[in-house]
Amino acid sequence: GHPLFLAAVADDLASRGTVARDDGRWVWRPEAGVQLGVPPTIRQLLERQIERLDAADRRVLEVGSAIGAIFPSAAVAAALADDVSAVEERCEALARRGQFLRGLGVGDWPDGTPTGQYGFTHALHQRVLLDTIPAGRRSRLHAHLGEQLEAAYGDGASDIAAELAGHFEEGHDYDRAVRYRVQAAANALRRTATREAVDHFLCAESLLPNLADDAGRLQTELAIQMGLGPALMSTRGYAMPEVERAFTRARTICQALGDPAPVFPVLWGIWGFHVVRGEMGPA
Asked: Strand pairing partners for 102?
């Protein structure tokens, strides 16, 4: 990596106590916090570089930073309502100069159109660029990106459910954010990525208060809790309190909805929790 980045990040970690001297050597102290922030000196340096950019280049980079560390030029063009070739020319020019971007070859847009793939030369570039976008405009940009990607992928939108969930969450479109989080959890379970599925379910659960308080919300929460319970059993163990909480909440929702169909797997989950804990009376 760039020596300037390495030195500045190391100094910042040391100043916050995340790394410290111990018996003549440097040791990692995770209890001090492992969140890697951008050191102020590097942030100021990058912000000055961003300010010197051509306005059109800056718009391309801002949209790219909202998409992710790697992005297709077609997605940027769709978000800007610009010509794909024009966007690629700007990305290529930046990559040739080694300025913020590097070229990553060619990929396919959902309609089969070849599109250039680009990545930020350093994660800090993406983070600082994203942070320079005012909060309101950043939220609108994420919502717009989510809509453009959803339309572009059509029936295949579920394949990028995690990406769409992130955009809609940032864009405050919580209905679609929850729907795609649940889909992302299902995708993870199909890959046996159970820990990832738990994260998606918990994220979806945290967004529920933003939804309208109606039967539709209860149905959505039931799906979340019924997916979360078995996933927690698999990753954290049958006897953990959060397992009981998920299945008990699911049982309450079943009763509120008057729907007997999910009751058996819900009761099985509660039974499994009590059996493993040796609580035979409730079991």
From this structure: 119
Strands annotated E in the chain: 19-22, 25-28, 70-72, 101-108, 114-120
In one-letter notation, the amino acid at residue 282 is P
Q: Which long-range contacts link 151-160 to residues 24+ away (Cβ below 8 Å)?
A: 152/74, 152/75, 152/78, 152/109, 152/110, 152/111, 153/110, 154/110, 156/110, 158/183, 158/187, 159/187
- Contacts by 175-182 with C-beta closer than 8 Å and gap 24+? 175/211, 176/146, 176/150, 177/204, 177/207, 178/204, 178/207, 178/208, 178/211, 178/220, 179/220, 181/207, 182/220, 182/223, 182/224, 182/227
* pTM for the model: 0.82
Long-range CB pairs of 33-42 (<8 Å, 24+ gap) are 36/9, 37/12, 38/124, 38/127, 38/128, 39/8, 39/9, 39/11, 39/12, 41/8, 42/4, 42/5, 42/8, 42/9, 42/124
* 31-89 confidence digits (pLDDT tens): 666 666 666 677 887 888 888 899 999 999 999 999 999 999 999 999 999 999 999 99
| First CA to last CA distance, the chain | 57
Neighbour count for residue 220 (Cβ, 10 Å): 20
Strand partners, 116: 106
Q: Is 1 helix (H, G, I), strand (E, B) or coil?
A: coil
The answer to whether the beta carbons of residues 139 and 151 sit under 8 Å apart is: no
